[in-house]
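Before relying on records like the one below, remember that each one covers exactly one chain. Contacts with other chains, cofactors or solvent are not represented anywhere in the record.
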Amino acid sequence: MIRTILVPTDFTIESEELLSCIGEFKNVGLKKVILLHVVDIFKAQGLAPMFEENAKERIEEYRILLEEMGVDATTVVVEGDVKKTIAGIADEENVDCIVMGATTSGLIKGRLIGRTTEYITRKSGKIILVEKYNTLRGTEGETYRKACSAKFSKVMLPIDFSENSKKILKEIRNLKDVIHEIEFVHVIESSKNRDKLEDKKKQSNFLLSEMGEEFEDKHEVKYITSEGETAETIDRLAEETDVTLIAITTHEMESFKGILLGSTAEKLLRKTEKPVLLVPAGKR
């Protein structure tokens, strides 16, 4: 169950847009949200106390917004190495999920860009929700709007039939009360032998239907088997079928230097404009 969520923020994505997605977790056991801002010690230097004081004022506004939504929230403002501090506090507070924001242009705004997000997704053993935002440019500068307003409406589950990929079902069971549609997807690498490819597709659809059978009574469930490069195909299907969230398991930390290093999940996270829920295959 996702009972405690950590939301690292650098105030670049407007508060209402960043925090509104938290409300969707209220019906699946959410008890507490920890709002975190890390003053970068490498950039702030002698100005760190001033930055810290300003951050405390701004993050309090976020806390008030969450309380108005009926969510218990606390705030933390500290100095430190941004990426290591986020991962460390997630462990210290024993949170169930980390929520981060990214723009659909492919760049995650502010201090949570590139290396920081990459570090968190590789090193943290927590569930990570990467919320995607469309960048809107107007006369008063950039603003952001969530790419999917109801992210649990139609959820895609990429499955490769490994034991790791099947572990996503546990989290989907926990979220079943807020999910309306589920789309099971398997991607087969391209094959020159069309007869064998069709046989593989039939077998894959059969295995997918076995996995999804338990959800069919209360959800609309679809099964799709396609061919091609895995991450590109998942992204294409997500656009074509208009899913609102892609939920995918990552490798166990013992298997690689980092959870997502070299994985389909990492490629998909960088490519897709859909929100992505990353669920570690190992213990949290």
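Residues 48-68 form the longest helix (21 residues).
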